[in-house]
Every structure is written in structure tokens, then in C-alpha cells.
Structure prediction request, 417 residues.
Amino acid sequence: MRYNALNILREGLRGNRGWRPAWRKPEPRGSYDIIIIGGGGHGLATAYYLAAKHGLSNIAVLEKGYLGSGNIGRNTTIVRANYMLPGNSEFYSHSLKLWEGLEEELNYNVMHSQRGIINLFHSDGQRDEFARRGNMMISQGDDAILLDRGGVCEMLPYLDYEQTRFPVYGGLYHPRGGNARHDAVAWGYARGADSRGVDLIENCQVTGIDIENGQVTGVQTTRGQIRARKVGIVVAGRSSQVAAMAGMRLPIESHVLQAFVTEGLKPCIDHVVTYGMGHFYISQSDKGGLVFGGDLDFYASYAARGNLPMAEHVVEAGMTLMPMIGKARVLRSWGGIMDMSPDGSPIIDRTDIKGLYLNCGWCYGGFKAVPASGDCFAHLLATDQPHRVATRYRLDRFETGIGLMDEEASGAQHNLH
Prediction:
């Protein structure tokens, strides 16, 4: 069923009794051409583009819980293309272009809002770095405007500009950036993939990967063995655990990243704002809640929850930047398991096992990358060739040191990215 004004009016008059489920609940078949492990945003997008762009439908997405129960529903929903290094720059630019046409393509409201992102800077050196980043963004074809303190003050009058340690010098404004509704993105891709014949199989945990003579032949699951010619691993913070089933050790550490939301407030924050020295970022949802987050918890963990010391750290940074939020009540917090790579950039590549493919290492960038990640991984699975905007996301760069992309200039340390 397509969503349109007439259907909404018709169903409203009949008590919404005519809506059909957005996707089927199929039983797993004995074999598929391609199995995608992971029913989050990246996995569902991959399945959708395999069907929509490459005409493949004998595909299964296996999810151990329910669709969208992982990081796609555990993030702060930011969409942006403000990367600097070649390799990342063109990839995220491609992703933003896909975001801009996503609702029309999926016929689904993912609530994509290009409200603009302002990255604040707090020193002369940081201003110079942001100016360089902005120039790289413009050279890639994206948008960037360097604001002085007065320009930021005009757009964000509620900030504390007289902080003793980190006074606001200005900001890098990315007008096409913004955010989207995270779970709606998962639902839209799931609905689109299902309508093209892809089997979305929930409550089906992969427990083993079958390999014969260096070739993947299928997977073992809690719902039985399923054979396949190709298998794609797209499981975010669980990448190391699933890859270990195939005898692989990945250059990935899994860390917890907390996020928070307040009670609903009247509109007060029009943009996405990031605090360059406090690693704090905030926006306001369409329901009025302030959605914000900060640093990783700085220790490896598979627990999808946070801790109080980091909650205190994040709230302290928020209060330092904008004291006006001090009376807002925090309703809830959550944690996502981040698959952190040594150079802060992702991996989309074939493995040494024929028919086994890998998509991981998204660090902080997983949500905004969902469309391009799905498009590029689908291209790789369908053609065995990397997509033109993902040619640098090779797995072997961590073995050879050639082509490393240290976007944050933090060195080869997972928890700093």
C-alpha cells in the first residue's frame, strides 16, 4: 500500500482498520543467493539497493532481534557531509545526495530535515582547521560557510559566549546538514526491500558461518541452516564476534556511545549544534525533546547501556555551552555499540574467504552513512567490484598501512575516533 493523502483520509474515516503490515513475516527458505547478516539501517539499505538497482530478489536479511533494534534506533539522528579527506569526502557527499531524494524514492516519510549544522570552534588553530575543512567540502561540491563570532551569535543567541576556558570564536556552518527519524529510515528501507521480494527474517540469530574449501556456503542460525552463495556481515558493534565465526580477527574495537533525550519543549534550537571542545552535540526533535550526546565511554564493551560518570560529563558540557537547558528534565538515555576502526573510517570490502563480504567500522558515522553504505555494499555484493565512492575502504589498509584515512588526526587508537 502506498502512503498518500487519500489513503490517510480514507483510513482515518474507517478507524485505520485497512492498513496492511509494512512487510511480511516469512519463514526462512533453505537457500538464497545472498544472505545479509544484520537487520539494521545498513543491512536493510543493502537489501533494498540489491533489489532496486541490481534486480536481485533471492535475498534474506537475518536479524537476531526485531528489525531496527540495534544502532539504527540508538543514535542522535545527525545527517551531514562535512568530511575533509579524499575517500571520506566523496562517500559522505554521495550519501547526502541519496538522503535528499530518499523520501520520494521510498514513498516513506523519514522526516529528513535539512536544518543545518554548526560546528563551533574555540581557538585560532581550530578556526584554521575548520576553514581548511570547509574549503575541502566546497571543492567536493558540498556547502560550507565559515562564521565569525558575530555570525554564530546571530544564529545561536542562546549560547554562553563568555566561557572562561573555551570562548566561542565562530563556527563552520553546513546548511544542507540536519537530521532524520532513525527508526523511520529502517522501516522505509524494510518496506521497500520487502515489496521487491527480499525476505526479512526476524528473531533469527546467526550462530555460525559455513565455509568449504575457502568458499562460504551458508550460515547456521537459531532457525536452522541456511545456504547461500554470498554472505554479507553488516552488524556494527558485533562485527568482531560475527567475523570470528569465520575465523577472522578484525581491526575493530566495540565501544559504548551514550545519547540522551529530554522532555518535550517548545521550539528553541533550530539547528544541530556541536561543541568543538566539549565533544557535545545537540538538536531538537520534532516532538520537542532535546536530543544530545558526547564522548564514547572509553572502554571496550558490548553492553547497550551507558554509565553515570559519562552521563555527568555530557550534561556538564551541555550546561557549559548553553546554560538555558539546565531546567529541562532528561527522560531517558541509551547506548549504542560502536564498531571503532583504528583510523576512524569504515570498511566495505571482500574478505579472503570467497563469497564473504564485510561492512563495518562506522565509528560515529553510521547513521548518516546508511544510504551510501547500502548502495556501495549492494554494488560490491552484486558485481564483486567496489563502488566508485568506496574504493578506499579496503580491509587490507590496516595490514599494509597504505591508504589509511585518519579523519580526526587522532592516530591509530580506536577510542579516539
